[in-house]
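Late entry, zinc ion complex.
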Amino acid sequence: MIRRERDGLRYYQFESFDVQAVDHAVFTRLGGVSVGFHQSLNLGGTCGDDPAAVRTNHERVFEALGRAFESRFDVWQVHGKTIVISETPRPVEQKHQPADGIFTANPEIVLMMRFADCVPLVFHDPVRKVVGIVHAGWQGTLLQIGKEAVEKIGEHYGSQPGDLIVGVGPSICSQCYQVGEEVRKQFLKSWGGIADTFFKPDGDRYLLDLWAANQWILRGVGVVHIEQSNMCTAENLDEWYSYRKEKGATGRFGIVIALKRD
Ligand SMILES: [Zn+2]
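Prediction complete; structure with ligand written out below:
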């Protein structure tokens, strides 16, 4: 990824995405107004932060993007596999709908999702002109939400997997992500023996490789162009929030993407 700074905010962009075609940013936790363990660009509204600070942080993000806050579409991320397609923004007063993947073909919409260890999958289809973001923690990965997303935009927009460019954003790496036998059992039950490719014994527990698992899911449905950021949230707390490393006392960093307007 390429590191950039604007208006005191530090963010990263995937090298694979054509900046002439899409506006996108993976915002670090730097440059906001939140204090304490939310310091400082927390975009999560349900992790105990001051709502006024979270609102100011959102305004800073949209200002840096040069987009109106009212153009935002976001959802309530619930670790499921529901994909929502929206060609309209979410009215600010309207409640979030539960979902873990969002897509649009409308250049007036800015998609936004929040993360702190879970794997972000950021999509661009330059042929059908579609963008999207998917939230894949271990539960979303178990449910193969990446596959769900590729199939859904195939049906809805006619997107071909071979045309898609997918960026795998900052998230917890396999060395930092220890899970118990109960998690491995669920994967084995659902995926069969292949699941063990992604688990490495670590004492009486396991290290789970969410990056490799999501790459395997995407390649399995025909995605060929994948950019892996290889940035671990738990090892870089200066830039990212990590739910695991900070034991839940943390914020959420934001990822935004929109098609360029003419
Ligand atoms: Zn790590």
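The two ends are 26 Å apart (CA to CA). Will revisit in the morning.
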